[in-house]
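One such shown below:

_____
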Amino acid sequence: MSTISVVIPCLDDADFLLACLDAMAVQSRPADEIIVVDNGSTDDTGAVARAAGARVLLEPRRGIWPATATGFDAARGEIIARLDADSVPAPDWLAEIERRMAERDRPTVVTNGGRFYGRTAAVRWIARNLYIGGYFTVIGGLLGHPPIFGSNYAIRADAWQRLGHLVHRDRADVHDDLDLAWWMQPGMTVVRDRRLVVGVSARPFDTAAGLWRRVRMAFHTMSIESREWPPLTRRAERRRAPAWVWESPELRDVTTESDAEGDDALPA
């Protein structure tokens, strides 16, 4: 069994954070530690986190990536799980992360989309089908593996130690999850586990402007990544690499297969 740290960046979202931490309190597999990174909140974020027994870190540089990276750096677990403050994980969320990470193919990252709550049915449909559906289909096709969804994923701490200096961790103008997915190194694998269930607020999609802002930021992120590691070069380098075996410093070939229980296993 691996130790698991849960990292939650938060900015003025104390009410949502309370619901998130309440969901963490009833996990069938408890977290070994919960880290809430306060990104400069003026509400009760810190007090709510401490009352729930979370470890609170302060990150004054605004942005999800700077806050997330601060939490990842401080995490003590062998696996780092990631939620947003408005995420509401299912009771078996951590148990499923632990199960999937222990499977024979030893993925580097496990992720899934979200089940949107709140707002209207039409807003939730747009969020689920246009935004998340498009993200996994279009960006996944470009990457050659599923992208990482920031409200619902887990990464091996060993992998973060290799990736932390490659990603644009100090920038607030890029999608942190897409940036992390792009810089997955040759041999690192991403698996979409459809049993990894997290509720996510649909509030960012209230307006067309909100949806467009996220899409525009995705294009901006891809522009930055493509200049630094061109897509064709990236695909070729990853295709040639054997899968990374985390219990050993060596690299060797590992054949991955589709999991009948709903996972999408991916080649390196």
Summary: Confidence is low (pLDDT under 50) at residues 247-268.
